[in-house]
């Protein structure tokens, strides 16, 4: 956005022409665009939109009409410049009041976007020429959000019949009033008779402030804390559309400003993050398009919060209580009634949030309560029952592979060391230490594998991955007294397994896996079958799988190959 301001400011201009131009704009607005209820036709809205376009061109071509800056040092010329500045400022502040009036009128909905864009460009013009006035105008917009919140409260409490704002942007009431009289400006006021009317304007102002976030963090960093609190309040109490705009705005604020807020606002911010995420997953939507927009906004909010929490300056900002509550709420949201109906982007963001905050807690030494651990283990079982959400499947894999070891649910856990100094875990020396929830998980996974049929669309790699997880996790948790963990991939694993009878549950999982591949994918994915039996050979070494156990599998599946023949098969 490039305004040739300096070029015009240094030119001499005709005061009479400037006055006539302002009068023309003033009369045009008063005669045609002040009573918007009387001009609701599409043609009138098209005319108003064209007028906005004309105004925007005027910002570029004759900016001194709207902003004037001192350029002379002579006393007489300085007096005239002060008058020019006063006239241009009064006219511009009156113009902003009219733009607010348009934004507040439901009859002008079709031109609200054009109006908001014009307001934004006008503020940019002011910023390029008078930073002080720009700060004043933006602060007034932020304060207006608070005033509108107060009006809504008065309406809800029954303490107001009509609320009104007028002459809102005037910084010097007496001086601007004199200039307004000279310019023949008609005073504009906005009346509100319902809380919905207040919220409608809040929504537009919030959207406008979101467009100004970079400028706010640069020119008004002292206002960021106040703006954060106001936006959180709107997320908490606002209707659907206002929630969406507030989430979008606060996401932009956190992206540009980080988490440099007061402790109370940090807690409020995370409370809003938790509440709005859970709201999206449990609320019965009434306006589909708005709700989808809210999902997208919350998804962005989650991603930005993850990014900023991971910054060094935020490392120790979260308390154990806040972190644990965030994980608990996100997990609850992922099992909410609407989660699987939400967008893939939203699902991915929620899952990414759970995984990130778990890892963040581990890295920063947080200790999670047992109830949260149990909630997560139950969540693993629930999530694996879903065949429609790749995000939930990804989360289940993560929790099994990582959280099942970092946050164990038994009582018999100790730490050891590799020879090179790396840490290892000694887990669950007997089955008494295995939680019932984890046993349910293993049984659920086998059930899923056994019930897959050709008429169900499922990712073959996912089935293979689940089977591997089952084999590894069951063996580690049930049948290993000591093990060293390096990689999760079977081909690279360095597990040292005690010689025990091969568990029937593992054989069942082999059967389920092989049946699925043979029944559904034999003709198209022959290589996968071969790869599977290569894994069987590997497991013979890892798990001491004997010819007898392999024979059991082959007999059940009617597989004609011997172990030796499988070993000679190409990949």
Automatic annotation (TrEMBL):
Pfam families per record: N-HEAT_ATR
Superkingdom of the source species: Eukaryota
Domain Serine/threonine-protein kinase ATR-like N-HEAT region per the UniProt entry, residue ranges: 64-258
Name under which the protein is recorded: Serine/threonine-protein kinase ATR-like N-HEAT region domain-containing protein
